[in-house]
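User: Sequence in, structure out. Go.
Assistant: Echoing your sequence, followed by the structure tokens.
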Amino acid sequence: MEPVSKYIVANGLRQHYLDWGNSEAQTVLMTHGIGLCAQIWNNTAKELSKEFHVISLDLRA
């Protein structure tokens, strides 16, 4: 399964995230460290999305 690239706007800021799996399943939120991006979780999210709804957030610098 491949993620869907999505955005949310909150307080005038546009925030990117990757959405994996079934949105009806329990959600797992994944964040990355400094200097990385949401794609760092691709391998893990791919496996977790078989049972969970995975959101991989792209944190703002």
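User: And one key feature?
Assistant: The two ends are 28 Å apart (CA to CA).
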